[in-house]
Fold:
Amino acid sequence: MEILLAVILIIVLFYFILMRPVMEQQRRQRRDISSLQVGYEVLTSGGFLATVKEIRVPEQGPVQLVLDLGGGVEVRALTSAVEQRIKLAPTPVPETDGRRRPSSSGKS
Structure:
């Protein structure tokens, strides 16, 4: 009887220490991927930070993303390559002619 209780205790501990955190991470990843929208910043499984530029849903096959890595570099990736959604990408600041704009407080 004591051995049976010890085995059950080990199984319960195994679940809470190893299995449950992995299942929570997978659930969060599925939620993040299903809510992806154009403009979101994501972390890929390769370690790249990229902005979602386009989402392609073909008639057959997996959903594809066009990711902007910056500097004009775009790559296509599957949604399974996305590890997590980081945040909504910031809106780009319009480029100026190279001169600094004066600050609104009057200080330089």
